[in-house]
Amino acid sequence: MEIFVSLDLNDRQAIRLREIAGEDKLHLHGCFDEGAPIEPSFRQCEVVLGNPPADWIAQAPALRWVQLESVGFGEYTDLNWHELGDRVTMTNLAGFFTEPVAESILAGILALYRGIDRLVCLQRDKDWQGDALRTELRTLKGAAVVLFGYGTISRRLAELLRPFDCELIPIGREWEREAIDTALATADVIVSTVPDTAATRGAFSRERLAGLKDTALFINFGRGSVVDEEALADALTAGSLGGAVVDVTLSEPLPDGHRFWTCPNMILTQHSGGGTADEIDRKLEVFSQKLERYRRGDQPAGTVDFLRGY
């Protein structure tokens, strides 16, 4: 069997991957940009680890399984999966980033409530304001938190929030406009962790953002498509929203002129929320476990359902 790898690895990680592959033939490459010409060896590989350019998938007749290095798979949704799905299985890293993302969300909320974002800038500028800031700081204890999307990340976040005695309002896949607007109207914190689907796209429209409390925090660690970015920037600039922590945006990297770079009361975490120092090492171990299942003829865990969109 031949395995194509599209990951940026150090020497130690490459050695570990060769151990995992055993007698299988490895084709080790770094990451490729969309639009890159197909690597000839890709056409003959049965298994892929990484996120290759989408247009390569249909050009690889030997391909049977793609293990993504991400949870998201938006770049592959336009492929003809009605045809490809009979031959190619794509799996993602569902659940892999649960702990770091949940901790990043909690850190962002606390940073805004306790003014850490502002204090870092004041330290940089050598500007001591001290007592003048005290009356503007808030605590998380007892806050009403809407969890828009109730997968593994929100469930872990709910555990982290328990010591703060927060009122948790989970909103899962089945939600109605009236129910969510009622919950949002009194929410202190709104956390979105939903994937990009037809149902979630644009869920936080200008109208819905206008219905939030002017002290509310909007937290987005799902997909950038869930919110009207211009409306969010307007609300923060006007002071009609208390703050935002944004990990995901419609365009990544964020363009130079984008308003999010200079929005007041926004923490922009640059899609780093799931990162850890041992991230690649852990991805290799997940691949090792799934590869063993694949060799036995079992279905690898985390199969992407392109008809559902997650």
How is this structure best described in words?
- Helix 1 runs parallel beside helix 10 and helix 3 packs across helix 6.
- This protein has 2 domains: 115 residues, 3-Layer(aba) Sandwich (Rossmann fold), CATH 3.40.50; 171 residues, 3-Layer(aba) Sandwich (Rossmann fold).
- The chain starts with a strand and ends in a 15-residue tail after the last helix.
- It is of the alpha/beta class and 310 residues long.
- The strands form 2 sheets. Strands 7-6-8-9-10-11 form a 6-stranded parallel β-sheet, sandwiched between helices. Strands 2-1-3-4-5 form a 5-stranded parallel β-sheet, covered by helices on one side.
- The protein has 10 helices and 11 strands.
Percent strand: 5-15%
Strands, count: 11
* Fourth-tier CATH superfamily name of the largest domain: NAD(P)-binding Rossmann-like Domain
Largest sheet: 6 strands, parallel
Number of helices: 10
In the CATH classification, which architecture of the largest domain applies? Answer: 3-Layer(aba) Sandwich
The sequence of SSEs as H and E is EHEEEHEHHHEHEHEHEHEEH
Provide the gyration radius in Å: 22 Å
Mean pLDDT: 96
Q: Kindly report how far apart the N and C termini lie.
A: 28 Å
State the secondary-structure class: alpha/beta
User: Poorly predicted ranges (pLDDT <50, ≥5 residues)?
Assistant: none
Q: What is the CATH top level name of the largest domain?
A: Alpha Beta
Strand order of the largest sheet: 7-6-8-9-10-11
User: Which topology of the largest domain does CATH recognise?
Assistant: Rossmann fold
